[in-house]
Design brief:
By secondary structure, the chain is mainly beta. It has one helix and nine strands; from the N terminus they run E-E-E-E-E-E-E-E-E-H. About 5% of the residues lie in helices and about 40% in strands. The strands form two sheets. It has a five-stranded mixed beta sheet with strand order 7-8-3-2-9, with no helix packed on it. Strands 1-6-5-4 form a four-stranded mixed beta sheet, with no helix packed on it.
Length: about 140
């Protein structure tokens, strides 16, 4: 049973108090998420019909600090894991990027469906996109 480690596709968006990460990998299971003040780690795996195990793993060193105790994650359908990062300082300016490193990563993309600009009010976005990230979570975590 060979194990292959890959970096998953990660989408990110932010609002004043939160950063939303979406890990876009179909049928991922055995998930382990670790929230630290300055980073977040994700590890999960999928199994194929030929018994190969694909491991998806990424550690993101964040631009600013988060509150690990109030950050959370949940499974959305069969294809996505959603991570809600609570910013440590909700009054600070929007992050110019997700990572501390200025490098552009091929696996990291902006989630424009959930993005909210710094000067945008909560009710300017319609149709559920860009709404309050907190409302996206089921609350059962």
């Amino acid at each position: 049973m060979p194990e292959q480690v890959q970096i998953p596709r990660v989408l990110w968006a932010q609002q004043r108090e939160h950063v939303l990460l979406t890990i876009a990998v179909p049928d991922i299971e055995k998930v382990d998420v670790k929230f630290e003040e300055d980073s977040v780690s994700f590890r999960g795996q999928t199994s194929s019909s030929n018994k190969d195990v694909n491991v998806y793993e990424v550690k993101i060193n964040l631009y600013e600090k988060i509150d690990p105790a109030t950050s959370k994650y949940e499974n959305i359908g069969q294809k996505f894991w959603r991570l809600l990062l609570q910013k440590k300082d909700a009054t600070a300016a929007f992050w110019p990027r997700l990572t501390k490193d200025k490098t552009r990563f091929h696996w990291l993309q902006t989630d424009f469906d959930h993005w909210k600009d710094e000067d945008e009010s909560d009710d300017e976005k319609a149709g559920g996109f860009g709404g309050n990230f907190q409302d996206m979570f089921s609350g059962g975590l």
